[in-house]
Each structure stands twice: as C-alpha cells, then as structure tokens.
C-alpha cells in the first residue's frame, strides 16, 4: 500500500494499476479471447493479477479533474484494502467456477460487474462511486438475463428497474449534498448528528443495494433466476459493496442497527419456509447482511470490525453455498427441495463442500462464521444492546436450522434412499476446485482468524475461542439440531412460493392495472355515458335553441330591418310618380285620415 | 456414505451424547464478562436454541400456511 511498491503494471500505464481496469479490459477483450482459445487462461490469470495488484496500490491515485469535479478513482486505506482483498479473491474463485461456460457474454458481464464493485470500493468521491455503482447494476442485470428463460428476463427487468430507482435516489442525495457542501463530494464518514436530507437519501440508495427491508425484495426475486455462475458472483458483490459504503459513510446510525437486526430475522424466517434452494440462500444473504448492517449501526470499533470481518467471511461461505446449490442445478436441472433428495451417493463432493458452507454460515467452531459473526454479537453485548444481541442470536439459530441442516438434508437425503435424479453426478473439476478453495478459506479463517483480524480497519481486541463462547455455540447448534430432529416432518419442503414485498410491484401493479382497466375504467365510461346522454344532449338542445334564436330571432330582426328598409324604399320609390295631382291627392287622403283619427279619439 | 447412512442409529445416540456434553460443558465454562442475565444461567442457550428453533418453525410455517403461501404460478396469472 505504499507508493514505493508500484507494480510493473503501474509503470506500464498508471491506469493499469487500478484493478477495475484489468477486469474492464478483460471483459472487453473476452469475445476475442474466446475466439483465439485464450479464455480459460485469461479467466485464471487476470483475477490472479488483480488479487496481487491490490497489495501494490498507493494510498491515493487516479485523480482527475473533470467539468469542475475533482474525481478520485483510487483511495486505499485499511477498510478499502480488506474489501479489495476479498473481492479479488472472490473474482478468482468465481471465474474458476465459471471456466466451463463457453458463452463469452456471461464472462464479460461478470467481469464488468466485478470492475464496478472494485471501482466503488476504491472511489474517493461520490461521483466516481456513482459511475461504478451504475456499472454494477447494469452488468449484474445481464447475469440474470443470460439464463435466457422467460422468468429470468422478467426478473432481470424488475431487478434493473429497482436498481435504477435506487441509483436515482442516490443521485438525488449526491445533488443535495453537492449543494449543501458547496461542491465538495468527497466520500467520507458522516456523523449522525450532521446528516442532512442529502445524506439520508444517499444512505437509502446504499441500503437498497444492501437489501434492507422493505427495499430488499429484488434480491430473493432475482438471484434464484440468475445463471448458475452469475449467481455466485451476484451473491458476493452487490450487497457487500453496499456494506462497504455503509461502513465507510454511515457507522453509528441507529436506524441501521435496528433495521439490521430485523433483517437478520426476516431473512431467516423466509429461509425456513422457502422451497427453492437458491431462494433460501438468497434470503440468507438478507439475513447475514443484516448482521453487518446492524454492526455498522452499533458503530463501535468492535462492531464495525465485526461487520467487515463478517462481510469477508460471508462472501466466501455464501459463494460456496451458491456454488453447491448451483452445481446441483447444473447437474440435475433442479433447485427445488421437493424435487431433490437422495443424492448423497451421486454428488458426495458437492455435499461435503455445501455442508462446509453450511456449518461456516452457522458459525461452527473452527469455521469462518464462528470468528466473524460472534464479533458482531459480542459487540452488541458490549454496547449493552441486549435486544439486538438476542435477535442476532435467534437469527443464528434459524441460520443453522435452514441452511446448516434443512438445505443439505433435503437436497442430499430428504428421507429418500433412491436418488431423485438418477443421472446426477459431481460437477466438473473446475467447479470442484472453486468450491474447494472457498471451503479451505472457510476453515482457514476459522482456525487462523488473525489472518482476517489483521486486515480489519480497527485494532482487534477480541478472542473468539473462549470457554464460554464455545459452550454457548455448542449449545445453540446442538439444540437447534434437536429442534430440527423433532420437527423434521413439519419442515418438509412444499412446492409452493411465499409472498414477499415484491408483491407490491408485481401483483400490486397488476391489480392496480386491473383496477384501472376495470372499475376505474367503468366509472370513466359511465361518466362519459352520462356526459353523452345528458350533457351532450343538453348541449345540443341548447345549441339548437340558440341556433333557432339566431336564425329566427336575431337574423329575423336584422334581416327584417334590412328588408323593411328596402321595401319601404321600394314603396317610397313607387310613390314618387312625379305627377302633382297624385301628390295633392295623397296629401288630401292623409289629411282626411288624420281628421278621422282625431275625430274618433 | 451409504455405509454410514445404514448406521443412522449410531449418529442419533452420538448426537444425544453431544447434547448432554454441551450442557455439562456449560457447568465448567468460565463466564467472563457476562452481558446480561442469560449469560449467567447455566444451560440458558440450550433452552433459547430449542424454543427459538421450535417457535420459529411453528410461527414461520403458520404464517406461511395462513397467508404467504401461494401456488408457484401465482405471478404468472395475468
């Protein structure tokens, strides 16, 4: 992390030291790499180069002045480094897992997505952050669309719309912040006491990507519809990038502490009742990210350390679980628990790796979950937040129940001695290798937590392996197992789906449309009919009456006056004979007439 | 794997032994820095986990059956 260690890449060109550049170049070259049969080599080498490159980054680099904005593409400190470390490691594992995929578009989308995440992590200002934020949204949408099923395409559109909305909220926050600070968009920590409307909008934008309820439903909607390899990338990057930006900008916000604990339970509750393996895992992302959001909300050094450590551990074991469920989907074409079972002899390695992921997420001693999750729970205890502590512990019980036991049990056993899919077998070697690396990391972090603790943003004063913590964990896990044993029949998978808040924009919008085209439209028609039959008739009658009055009244008077004048003129003209005796006669007649009138009156 | 599966009974008894061991271990575990009253009670987390697990299954399944659960093609109906 010192400028004296500039890598050969940086000497080649300064922009090449930005790890996102490597992935963007790789993504753009992917069609060519596929054509000249260098795809597999690139899929291994580029992520590895990026993984080592992050150790050679200076503290600040890539400063650009653009249209009056000071953009910082590279800002490296301990918080950045730990996320860069796990993101690039995940890129290595994810690319290895996807090695067999021949469709270059999937690799391009996945790497642009990784580049977006790395760009956000390294961004020193909100504008740079926003650019990479949107790159992530668009690239990850393609990972859903590339599944090429009708449901995936629809889910991809919903995913994109939700993220565009989140991006707009973020952008609105950035604008307000720009105005409030007089043009300073540096991305630094915001104190809860100083936060304005712009800051809260930015936080909501971040929370949407972290899948904080009630703006979480995009996640369990979209992830199960993504491609097998795409879901592995997706489970690692979007939510954890959001955790990074929340940890960077918003530690100590009480709303995050409370919503995080609610998230942890909310996700678990759905995981208990869901049927689709990848949907269960998607809900578990909501739950596990809840721990991280809660830790950030508590805001103490230990809690933020715990959140970051848990993000690191989570990326690896969740990717492992998604790889396990993905391998089952890839090899059997099924992901619903009620359609699976009895595969233990057919896919033993996938079983072992998935169980390792399951025990790591459940926080078994010697696994990564034990050393990271407990740090957040202990931090809640130290901050005297007993309510949060109990909620998070209950979520841990549900985690072991749903992902530690239920998921592997119903995929590989489920009380069936015959395999549900007779032709099933373990996935190809590259997939097993990727799962093996992730599984190794789950144990490595659990056995040697100092490796992780050393990277954390604050100095760590926490010892996970104490007698009481071990006792607590063994009891929690053991008696959760007993609960499952007692209720195994009640937990049986059902071929149904459960409503979530995406109802509002899926069925809710349809219902609104139905309302608009049904009752609302009828009312509209009725009003139209009333207008036609009463209003229009009345108008016509009035118009006719006015027309008649115009013709018969006004025109008669005006025309009649004119005609009268003409007629009178005619008559006068005829009266003017020019003969004096006629005039004398007429005068005598007139006089005679006047006299009669006078006499009669 | 099949061989192990045929001996599922062994696992059952090993599991119950583990549960007893976990509670027994709690008698010995030193309570450093208890955060709330539950930390001072022996076997608290056993009870918490068992009732938490059973409660979660009953409540979540109950809500699901009563309200949330729909046919898989629920969103396909236009």
From TrEMBL, chain A:
Residues 123-394 form the NADH:quinone oxidoreductase/Mrp antiporter transmembrane domain. It is found in: Cell membrane; Membrane. It holds the Pfam family Proton_antipo_M. Keywords: Cell membrane, Membrane, Oxidoreductase, Transmembrane, Transmembrane helix. It is a multi-pass membrane protein. The chain crosses the membrane at residues 15-34, 41-58, 78-99, 108-124, 130-147, 159-180, 200-219, 226-247, 253-273, 280-303, 309-329, 349-368, 388-409, 430-448, 468-488, 580-600. This is Na(+)/H(+) antiporter subunit D.
From TrEMBL, chain B:
The keyword Membrane applies. This is Uncharacterized protein. The chain crosses the membrane at residues 40-60. Keywords: Membrane, Transmembrane, Transmembrane helix. It comes from the Bacteria.
């Amino acid at each position: 992390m010192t400028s004296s260690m500039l890598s050969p890449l940086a000497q080649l060109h300064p922009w090449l030291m930005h790890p996102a550049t490597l992935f963007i170049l790789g993504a753009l070259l992917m069609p060519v790499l596929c054509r000249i049969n260098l795809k597999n080599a690139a899929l291994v080498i580029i992520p590895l180069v990026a993984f080592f490159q992050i150790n050679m980054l200076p503290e600040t680099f890539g400063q650009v002045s653009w249209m009056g904005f000071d953009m910082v593409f590279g800002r490296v400190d301990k918080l950045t480094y730990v996320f860069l470390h796990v993101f690039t490691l995940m890129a290595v594992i994810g690319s290895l897992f996807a090695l067999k995929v021949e469709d270059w578009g999937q690799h391009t989308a996945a790497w642009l997505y990784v580049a977006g995440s790395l760009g956000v992590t390294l961004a020193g200002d909100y504008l740079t952050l926003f650019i990479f934020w949107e790159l992530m949204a668009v690239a990850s949408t393609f990972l859903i669309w590339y599944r090429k099923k009708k449901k995936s395409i629809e889910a991809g559109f919903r995913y994109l719309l939700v993220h565009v909305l989140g991006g707009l909220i973020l952008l609105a926050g950035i604008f307000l912040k720009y105005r409030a600070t007089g043009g300073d968009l540096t991305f630094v920590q915001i104190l809860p006491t100083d936060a304005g409307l712009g800051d809260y909008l930015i936080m909501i934008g971040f929370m949407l990507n972290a899948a904080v309820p009630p703006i979480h439903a995009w996640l369990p909607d979209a992830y199960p519809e993504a491609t097998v390899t795409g879901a592995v990338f997706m489970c690692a990057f979007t939510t954890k990038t959001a955790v990074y930006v929340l940890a960077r900008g918003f530690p100590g916000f009480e709303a995050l502490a409370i919503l995080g604990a609610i998230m942890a339970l909310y996700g678990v509750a759905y995981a208990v009742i869901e049927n689709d393996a990848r949907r269960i895992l998607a809900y578990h992302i909501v739950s596990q990210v809840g721990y991280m959001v809660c830790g950030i909300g508590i805001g103490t050094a230990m809690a933020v350390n715990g959140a970051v450590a848990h993000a690191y551990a989570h990326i690896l074991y969740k990717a492992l679980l998604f790889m396990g469920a993905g391998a089952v989907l890839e090899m059997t074409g099924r992901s619903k628990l009620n359609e699976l079972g009895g595969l233990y002899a057919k896919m033993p390695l996938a079983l072992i790796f998935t169980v390792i992921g399951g025990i790591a997420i459940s926080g078994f001693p010697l696994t990564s979950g034990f050393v990271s999750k407990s740090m957040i729970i202990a931090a809640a205890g130290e901050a005297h937040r007993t309510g949060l502590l109990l909620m998070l512990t209950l979520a841990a019980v549900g985690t072991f129940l749903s992902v530690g036991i239920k998921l592997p049990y119903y995929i590989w056993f489920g009380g069936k001695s015959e395999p549900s899919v007779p032709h099933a077998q373990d996935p190809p070697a590259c997939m097993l290798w990727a799962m093996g690396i992730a599984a190794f990391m789950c144990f490595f972090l659990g056995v040697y937590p100092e490796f992780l603790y050393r990277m954390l943003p604050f100095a760590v004063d926490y010892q996970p392996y104490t007698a009481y913590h071990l006792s607590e964990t063994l009891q929690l896990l053991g008696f959760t197992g007993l609960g499952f044993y007692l209720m195994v029949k009640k937990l049986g998978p059902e071929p149904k789906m459960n409503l979530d808040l995406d109802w509002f924009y899926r069925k809710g919008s349809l219902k609104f449309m139905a309302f608009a085209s049904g009752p609302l439209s009828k009312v509209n028609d009725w009003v139209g009919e009333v207008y036609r039959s009463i209003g229009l008739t009345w108008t016509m009658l009035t118009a006719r009456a006015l027309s008649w009055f115009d013709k018969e009244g006004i025109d008669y008077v005006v025309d009649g006056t004119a005609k009268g004048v003409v007629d009178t003129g005619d008559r006068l003209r005829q009266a003017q004979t020019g003969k004096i005796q006629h005039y004398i006669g007429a005068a005598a007649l007139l006089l005679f007439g006047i006299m009669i009138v006078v006499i009669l009156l | 794997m099949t061989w192990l599966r045929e001996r599922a009974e062994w696992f059952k008894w090993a599991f119950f032994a583990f549960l007893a061991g976990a509670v027994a271990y709690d008698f010995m575990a030193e309570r450093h820095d208890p955060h709330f009253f539950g930390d001072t009670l022996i076997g608290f987390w056993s009870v918490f986990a068992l009732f938490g697990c059973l409660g979660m299954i009953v409540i979540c399944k109950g809500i699901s059956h009563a309200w949330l659960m729909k046919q898989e093609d629920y969103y396909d109906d236009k």
